[in-house]
Amino acid sequence: MADFFPALTEAHSAFIARQPIFFVATTAADARINLSPKGMDTFRVLDANTVAYLDVAGSGNETNAHLLADGRITIMFCAFDQPALIFRIYGRGRAVLPQDAEWAALYAQFPPLPGTRQIFVVAIDQVQTSCGWGVPQMTLDHPRETLNKYNAKYSNEERLSYWQSARTSSIDGLHVRTPDGLPS
After folding, report:
1. 74: which of 25, 33, 99, 162 fits an S-S bond (Cβ 3.0–4.6 Å)?
2. Torsion sign over Cα 174, 175, 181, 184
3. Alpha-carbon span 38 to 132, nearest angstrom
4. Is this model's pTM higher than 0.90 or not?
5. pLDDT for 110-162, tens place per residue?
């Protein structure tokens, strides 16, 4: 059975803090649904009505494009241990890039990671919990370092040049807002 909440509770925030992975889903009219797993230490609860996550460049930039076009975002956490739980955050998101006024204050809340491109801030519309009884129990072996190693191979200038030339639209041709500077 699902339960709905207008905002995060302290118990919700504690659950989120224990999860090593979360999933982000977005879409826009006539666009593919984008669903991405996220890990590392990149998720923060800012307050009961706002969350944010640090986006480290990997493949595309669909979330940025979808939020510009539509704004809707769903974030899901699953408990892979006990007790079972599926936890969803429904909201409206936006990208904060290094050139934006609020960047410095937000970025200070995250570890500096190579390939950091933007921070997605989500205003919460609703929170949902459900049983999660169909999710298998699993244990975390260790985090992957592959993305950090990949991004560390390139200079900040090389990454910025790539983002500004090759990542200017989504796979469906939607506009993407790109950094015009680097995290500091």
Report:
1. 25
2. negative
3. 19
4. yes
5. 999 999 999 999 999 999 999 999 999 999 999 888 888 888 888 888 888 88
